[in-house]
Specification:
- By secondary structure, the chain is an alpha+beta fold.
- The protein folds into two domains: about 120 residues, no CATH class; about 180 residues, no CATH class.
- The protein has eight helices and 15 strands.
- A hairpin with a 2-residue loop joins strand 10 and strand 11.
- Helix 1 packs parallel to helix 2.
- The relative contact order is 0.13.
Length: about 325
């Protein structure tokens, strides 16, 4: 439940909301106060990402006396959300919508919280906002290649994979989407070695929440030299022009991480493509920056790469290929 020390709940319209209230349909209002109090049943399965996102945002701005409680205190809320997510949660992320769960973004430079994996929002202190597609009811409308395994009792168990596109999907996404370099690269076998859980100390991958990910990766140098007029000087939604093979594209910063400062050395960075979307003639590529280590990679920041739908062939410049990566 949620309570307030500063008002009488019997006179609070927010606490008296019922599941059929018109107020609950208001997306802005729900983002501000949540869907009433948590005793209010959730009856909108098609909007489960919005319900989940609102809860982690409201929760993430709280401070924990003990870091170890970073996820424990959220367990009760996750139990309520299991009404919508029958497959449950893994380190605070919904299994059924795992690709969007990985794309959370920070609203202030986050501070690392020990004892949790870098890819989970629970592993960081500070306000967090969840990601979701433009049409929240169709989270996998534009499929990407993404397969994820976890360690369980010394074995790798696959618990998430993006579905294969259907004929209906093909009609929706159009010919350009079907024939672009990303779609083509997903058809090839990865040249990376197969995952071998034996290279890690016993039980470490399971206890530390390692993710074994097969996805399409990009390699390129983010260009922050040409900010678009009237963007914020720093932080979420800062937008830059980036030319790829002579085509004007966009890079959008989706968080306020300090690692987004222009690098002193022009080196290629590696990004995992976790989701795609489309709006007004642009294809949005949701990218997760990787920080490679000896046997694994840590989660970096989140960027959006916007490419004109009729120019998707320029993505060849970003060297898309199927990769196997371990996220810690």
């Amino acid at each position: 439940m949620q309570c307030s020390e500063s008002l009488n709940q019997t006179k609070s319209w927010a606490h008296l909301l019922c599941h059929n209230s018109n107020f609950i349909q208001d997306e802005w209002l729900e983002a501000q106060v949540g869907s009433g109090c948590l005793r209010n049943p959730v009856h909108q399965p098609s909007r489960r990402l919005a319900h989940y996102g609102a809860k982690i945002t409201l929760y993430s701005y709280r401070s924990m006396t003990k870091d170890i409680d970073g996820l424990n205190a959220f367990t009760g809320i996750l139990k309520q959300l299991e009404i919508l997510y029958k497959e449950g949660f893994f380190w605070g992320l919904p299994v059924a919508d795992f690709q969007w769960g990985l794309l959370w973004r920070s609203q202030s430079p986050p501070k690392r919280r020990v004892g949790f994996p870098t890819w989970s929002w629970a592993g960081w202190e500070g306000g967090v906002w969840a990601a979701h597609p433009f049409d929240i009811k169709l989270p996998r409308q534009f499929p990407v290649h993404l397969h994820i395994w976890k360690a369980l009792d010394g074995q790798l168990v696959q618990f998430f994979r993006t579905p294969q596109g259907t004929d209906e999907d093909a009609n929706n996404i159009g010919v350009a989407f079907q024939n672009d370099p990303v779609t083509k690269s997903a058809q090839f076998t990865s040249t990376d070695p197969e995952f071998d859980i034996r290279v890690y100390p016993k039980d470490v991958p399971q206890k530390a929440g390692y993710l074994f990910v097969e996805a399409i990766a990009f390699q390129f140098i983010p260009d922050y030299s040409r900010p678009i007029y009237k963007t914020r000087e720093r932080g979420k939604y800062e937008l830059f022009v980036m030319s790829i093979r002579g085509t004007s594209c966009r890079i959008k910063i989706m968080s306020t991480d300090i690692e987004l400062d222009p690098p002193t050395q022009q080196i290629k960075r590696q990004f995992l493509l976790l989701a795609r979307d489309r709006r007004e003639g642009l294809v949005y590529h949701y990218l997760l920056l990787l920080h490679s280590q000896e046997h694994a990679a840590a989660r970096g920041t989140v960027l959006e790469l916007l490419v004109p739908e009729d120019k998707l062939e320029v993505l060849k410049e970003l060297e898309p290929r199927k990769r196997r990566v371990v996220l810690l």
